[in-house]
Amino acid sequence: MGKSNCHLNKTMNYRQDIRNIAIIAHVDHGKTTLVDAMLKQSKVFRDNQVVGELIMDSNALEREKGITIMSKNTAVLYKGVKINIIDTPGHADFSGEVERVINMADGCLLLVDSVEGPMPQTKFVLRQAMAKGLKCIVVINKIDRDNSRMAEVIRLTQDLFLELATSVDQLDFQLLYASAREGIAVTELGTKGKDIFPLLDCILETVPPPQITSGPFQMLVSNLDYDNHKGRIAIGRIWRGSIAPHDSVAVLSADGTVTRYEIGEVFTYLGLKRMKIEEAEAGDIVAVTGMKEVSIGDTIASFDLPEALPRIEIGEPTIEMTFGVNTSPFGGNEGCFCTTRQLRARLYKELETNLSLRVEDTDSPDTFLVKGRGELHLAILIETMRREGYEFEVSRPEAITEIVDGNLMEPVEALTIDTKGEYIGVLTEMLSKRQAQLTNMHNDGHDNIRLEFHIPTKGLIGFRSAFLTATRGNSIMNTIFLGYEPWRGEIVSTRGGVLVASERNTAVTYGLNNAQERGDTFIEPGTPVYEGMIVGMHARLQDIPVNVCKEKKRTNIRSSTSDIAVKLTPPVIFSLEQAIDFINNDELVEVTPKNIRLRKKLLTHTQRLRSIASLRQSIKA
Ligand SMILES: Nc1nc2c(ncn2[C@@H]2O[C@H](COP(=O)(O)OP(=O)(O)OP(=O)(O)O)[C@@H](O)[C@H]2O)c(=O)[nH]1
Ligand SMILES: [Mg+2]
Fold first, then answer.
1. Cys staple from 369: which of 34, 131, 153, 360, with CB 3.0 to 4.6 Å?
2. Whose CA is nearest to atom 30 of ligand 1?
3. Among 583, 592, 584, 605, which residue's Cα sits nearest to residue 530?
4. Phi and psi of 498, rounded to 5°?
5. How many CB atoms lie within 10 A of CB 438?
6. How many C-beta atoms surround the C-beta of residue 489 within 10 A?
7. Contact 264/289 with Cβ under 8 angstroms?
8. Ligand 1 pocket at CB < 6 A
9. In this predicted model, what pLDDT tens digit does every residue of 281-320 receive, in sequence order?
10. Which atom of ligand 1 is nearest to the CA of 68?
């Protein structure tokens, strides 16, 4: 391959020794498990190396939740060809990750679960892949499941291609069947598979090798990493030329500035390792060090010819909430980083890698507005910060509205629910209160019902936990962003009131037992509480102050606390996501490395009464 310093003298070429593929699918359809199989069978590990499962889900939260949150690179060697693989998350809240990395690939594996079939996120990611012109291989996965509906799933997948294809050749896709968990893939249904190699062969045959242009170096930064010794690491695909340590490059940033750097080290991927190499050429996916300031979307180019590649486009966030310094009476006691300065720095730092996130300062110096793709997107950020030692408070998530031509517009999503006949009534009732409109209903004849709705994003906030309770965990829901539509008016909150601690002290069994006569409690005896902290909920609308610290008067010796303890119902303990889902506009979630507390914004009963009175006044006026 001839190298040229003159960009006018471009020659097109292909690198037969590389394939770049992204693995895309709806959540849980088996992407990361398939990557496991490819890694294990292509022998990138030592024979005795213990590698486990879902190897690419390396981050602690990913392992706990069993989902992929960030897309990651790996590579396998097969028949002398390096297949660079990009594993992506399937949850709609992290779809920004798919948009971010998909342009490194020339082809994609679209996984479809053999039982669930194409789901909302299957459509979203396939549309992304088609827009980028990726060559698609469809893998019907989980063929080992005994209730798989192969013919139906294939038909639905073909329908999806018919709907989304922008050219005829996109309709022509390779179809394989796999059990990622068993590590097998076959090209014909009914044949017995023994390994994953038919899939790797199919990748070599159908995914075009990277097309490269000769000329000075040019690469688009699609991901960033950080190493204490090496500093910032920029990851991306080389589109033109080659790169070696000590090369002189320019970083072209969003605002048009051009900064000169000397490349430190150059790495490529193999298995879970980054391998240091002397030179990398166009078509490969590499990681390079040496740049102090570089962001995702920037172009790194030869200093002789600093030409920028088109920046990565990411959809806008739909949900916002505030992150503020913890103003509770317990504020500053449990975290390592509690100040405005620390909170602000951490949030703005997140923007470097979390591309679909937005952070804005607000009128209040202690509070920041954070915008994301969904409740889970923001909840993962909160949980990550909490584990890093940050302490702060967050507000209820709100849908982000826009004014277009003088009209108030709000985000609307498609909601798909897979359920049983017995729940249709309760679900449609719950959803109509949340301004959802039923758009489709399908019964497969075995009482498996699929309901499809259009629902404003604001109607989805707090819906997931109510949904799980109402269907006793027997149904699955999925959402996908549709677009902005005219504002449909406020939704009346259906949540009941809360039990609010009336003094600062420690909760005791006797006090909690009294509180349980009014509703369900959230805390164990021995929990420190403060005035204004939410300690329970009840069915009626208004909030009730309760004294959970009240001890029984010591008059009757026989009634020891033990006989009361028997009566105490176990508390309802919220996860972080449930807590965020639960709170109303006049409430906050206090997040510390040790605790998640719920509180009223106004801590004293008098303050709250006054605020209600003044609200009534203003409504009257
Ligand atoms: N029965 C069966 N289960 C599978 C198969 N492949 C994956 N699974 C299971 O499906 C679940 C999800 O698998 P993952 O590989 O994490 O799915 P994913 O697509 O990477 O999920 P996200 O990254 O969160 O979107 C896990 O419990 C897997 O064990 C398969 O071929 N057969
Ligand atoms: Mg995954």
1. 360
2. 142
3. 605
4. -120, 160
5. 16
6. 10
7. yes
8. 25, 27-33, 54, 66-68, 89-91, 141-142, 144-145, 179-181
9. 999 999 999 999 998 999 999 999 999 999 887 788 999 9
10. 23
Q: Who's near 35: CB < 8 A, 6+ residues apart?
A: 23, 55, 56, 74, 85, 87
Residue 503's Cβ-count burial label (10 Å; 0-12, 13-18, 19+) is middle
Task: Pull the structure tokens for residue 100.
Answer: 């971010």
Any idea what DSSP says for residue 214? -
Per the prediction, the chain carries an average pLDDT of 90
Query: In the numeric block, which tokens belong to residue 532?
Result: 């204004």
Residues in the chain, total:
621
The whole-number pLDDT of residue 621 equals 76
Other residues' Cβ atoms within 10 Å of the Cβ of residue 394: 23
Contacting residues for 336 by C-beta, under 8 A, at least 6 apart: 389, 390, 391, 593
Question: Residue 3 — pLDDT band, cuts 50, 70, 90?
Answer: very low
Instruction: Determine the pLDDT at residue 89.
Output: 94
CA 67–ligand 2 middle distance (angstroms): 5
Question: From the CA of 158, how far away is ligand 2's center (Å)?
Answer: 24
Decide the pairing of beta strands 392-395 and 402-404: unpaired
Strand 392-395 with 398-399, pairing: unpaired
Instruction: Report how far residue 162's alpha carbon sits from residue 176's, in angstroms, rounded to the nearest whole number.
Output: 18
* Tens-digit pLDDT profile for residues 382-391: 999 999 999 9
Q: Is 574 helix (H, G, I), strand (E, B) or coil?
A: coil
Contact present, 235 and 258 (Cβ < 8 Å)? no
pLDDT at 263 over 80: yes
Element (H, E) at 576: helix 576-582
- Looking at ligand 1, which residue's alpha carbon is closest to its atom 2? 142
Neighbours of 13 (CB within 10 A): 16
| Tokens standing for residue 282 | 């166009």
What is each CA distance from 183 to 27, 38, 153, 198, 199, in whole angstroms?
19, 8, 21, 11, 10
Q: Which amino acid is located at 133 in the chain?
A: G
